[in-house]
Amino acid sequence: MEDIYGNHRDRMQETLDQLVSRVKTLREEMSQQTEFDPIEHILARIKSDQSMRDKLRRKGLPQTAEAALFQLHDALGVRIVCGFLSDVYEMRDRIAAQTDYTVVEERDYIRQAKPNGYRSYHMILRTQAGYYVEVQLRTISMDTWAALEHHLQYKKPHVGNQRLIVQELKRCADELASTDVSMQTIRDMILNERD
Ligand code: 0O2
Predict the structure, then answer these.
(1) 47 alpha carbon – ligand 1 mean position (Å)
(2) What is the domain count for the chain?
(3) Cα(103) to centroid of ligand 1, in Å?
């Protein structure tokens, strides 16, 4: 089967590399200014051929590079996992302040969590090369929940007590969110004491 991204792959990879290197620069600047490394880890990926084809099918879009790259906006993705809530928002501000791409959409699923408990800050950037990149910013706790929930999704068709499972996953997400707030408070206390 033909590559869904046609002959775009090299330029897509280049775009991703440039953005990751920009995020690393922002990370260094923040680390120097605050003496705290704001980032736990960064992941960058081109959505796999199969999962892009599945998504196009779900959305009723044609199986073309044009639809994959310009009608959907997450063929390129960068996930930035931060230690603390304040790091997520500070990093968001610094990313938004750059001028070599445009922020075309933002969704704050932290202040407004999804009904299932999913939390993250999403930004869609349009780069100079014309490609879109979905940036997901989240804390370690949010990342843990999203990874486990994603993993459990594969088991879904085999379970009968779906309602209880959804409820329990939501409870875990809320408990982790509450821990994030407590960890932030502890960090603020430490910083205030130092000043
Ligand atoms: P993958 O494998 O991460 O690429 P929609 O139009 O509602 O179907 P949209 O517009 O693509 O979705 O954006 P949305 O809802 O903001 O979510 C985009 C991405 O956020 C998803 O990409 C996931 O990575 C993550 N995400 C959103 N909701 C959830 C959730 O409930 N659980 C988990 N684990 N991740 C979530 P993809 O393409 O689904 O998957």
Answers:
(1) 12
(2) 1
(3) 18
